[in-house]
Design a protein that fits this description.
By secondary structure, the chain is of the alpha/beta class. About 40% of the residues lie in helices and about 15% in strands. It has helices at about 1-15, 50-65, 90, 100-115, 130-135, 165-180, 200-205, 205-215, 220-235, and strands at about 40-45, 70, 75, 80, 120-125, 190, 240-245, 255-260. The strands form two sheets. It has a six-stranded parallel β-sheet, covered by helices on one side. Strands 3-4 form a two-stranded antiparallel sheet. α2 (about 50-65) packs parallel to α4. The protein is elongated and about 75 Å long.
Amino acid sequence: FYGAGAFEQLLAAAVIRGTKGAEIPCGKVCDSPRFSYRGFMLDSARHFQSVETIKKVLALMAKLRLNVFHWHICDSQGFRSESKLFPELNTLAGMTPGFYTADEIKEICDFAAEHFITVIPEIEMPGHVRAMLAAKPEFSCVGKSLPQTPRIFWSIEDDVLCVGNDEAIAYLEKIYDAVCEMFPDAPYIHIGGDECPHIRWKECAKCQARIKAENLKNEAGLQAWVTTRIVRHLEKRGRVAIGWDEALAGDVPKSTVRMVWR
């Protein structure tokens, strides 16, 4: 596949030079990648793109020998993956400007596979979840008083998942189960984990009870606890978790891949 791509680029260069018959000089191409993971991240949670636009991006990636499509489809501004189990994730959290149906996600994944590109979906937790909480405000630390609207502007949201609530943890695990089913060939699932304020956890009786019950030192330990819970949950489904660098602070499984953004 890459050999054909190299030939196409040599041919295009010959055409540009105006060589008669677009001749390519005799030669030998010796090419191998320095990095096995050559990724590109696209944020479709805050900047929604059409399926056709994403396919154009994938085709351009292939021309540049990029082979990993990191697809950021969940954030405080929107939940962009169809959810049959929790349809309110789409009607409330993904309503504006839209979401990708299961068929559209399969179409994108199939197109990526044809171009030898691995798709890694990113579903953020425990912060960057304002859209998730728009669908289920009872899983925030402030409960149902939280307005059922996603965040409509940039910056970090103080309202995060109430990880002291067992039902909220179950909700999160079911979302990841659905993502694993929708992306059956994804070896990695990105769980985010960055920019999670602890202000609500400090004020939340359920979160403080979890800290005490699990013998954790503080709220940072609480984030490590929920990260470990989701990492182990994904491992049972044969997936490896990737987290932004602050997600891996503290006692978390060494199997988790650290993606450093800071």
